[in-house]
Design goal:
This protein has about 220 residues and is α/β, with parallel strands linked by helices. It has a single domain, classed as Vaccinia Virus protein VP39 (Rossmann fold). The chain is built from eight helices and seven strands, in the order ααβαβαββαβααβαβ. The longest helix has 11 residues. It is globular, with a radius of gyration of 17 Å. The chain binds S-adenosylmethionine (SAM). S-adenosylmethionine (SAM) binds next to helix 1 and strand 2.
Length: about 220
């Protein structure tokens, strides 16, 4: 079944390129959360890689052996290939990662888990793609108690090619535990400065925006069995 689409984000004045620019400031802080030992010289999977920026920035900081980027957005994967010719990265448009023939030391997904309807299926497939002792870093914000949830979901579902889900942090952690992972939470947005200029995009109040910041984690799940 082909579930691919042209671009992930379809807002008129900016598709996936605008998301790439919006996320640009965040990459150094995201990469700071990863243990270099999980990246240097390793085989890496970026699930939901969009235009491939993270994999390029990651290689520039911590050269890995090779990487695979997977996404469903055809134009974004085309841009990722075009922009990554000097990097040891292969990109695929793939709706079923069980079809990948490679295995990985480390898998990463940023801002993707909230779009995955069947967590059990996703985590089971990641488990099978990881080598023993391998790790999955996946960013996640529990929005289940955020008063802006309905507004946020309305905006994301309007422009995103995949609908927002509403998993709790406990559901996500339980799913990892049930699949034989050891789970650690790494806090995101820990600095003293918080730029709230864009809070209105997905939140009804600054308080709700701060709640999102406080509930944002990089989940580090290590395959132990
Ligand atoms: C919010 S964007 C995040 C993109 C990128 N990881 C980042 O942080 O900038 C979510 C991405 O996940 C991709 N995606 C969603 N569901 C997916 C799936 N089942 N398989 C592969 N990619 C998926 C979307 O196409 C989109 O590129």
């Amino acid at each position: 079944m082909d579930t691919s689409y042209e671009t992930w984000w379809s807002e008129e004045d900016g598709g996936d390129l605008s998301m790439e620019k919006d996320h640009e400031y965040a990459w150094p802080a995201t990469i700071d959360l990863l243990d270099p030992k999980d990246i240097l010289g390793k085989k890496i999977l970026d699930f939901g890689c969009n235009r491939g920026v993270l994999l390029r920035k990651l290689y520039d900081r911590y050269p890995y052996e090779k990487a695979v980027g997977v996404d469903l957005a055809r134009q974004s994967i085309a841009a990722a290939k075009e922009n990554s010719q000097d990097y040891p990265i292969t990109f695929y448009i793939e709706d079923n990662i069980a079809n990948l023939t490679e295995t990985f030391h480390t898998a990463i997904s940023t801002s993707v888990l909230y779009l995955i309807e069947d967590l059990n299926d996703h985590i089971s497939k990641i488990h099978d793609l990881l080598l023993d002792g391998g790790v999955y870093y996946t960013s996640f914000t529990d929005q289940s108690k955020n008063p802006s949830l309905a507004y946020m979901k309305q905006e994301i579902d309007k422009y995103g090619a995949v609908k927002m889900q509403n998993h709790t942090l406990t559901q996500v952690v339980d799913c990892f535990l049930d699949h034989g992972f050891q789970v650690e939470l790494i806090r995101e947005h820990t600095g003293p400065h918080i730029d709230v200029s864009g809070y209105r995009r997905f939140h009804l109040s600054v308080d709700d925006y701060l709640q999102s910041m406080a509930n944002s984690f990089m989940i580090k799940a290590r395959k132990i069995k």
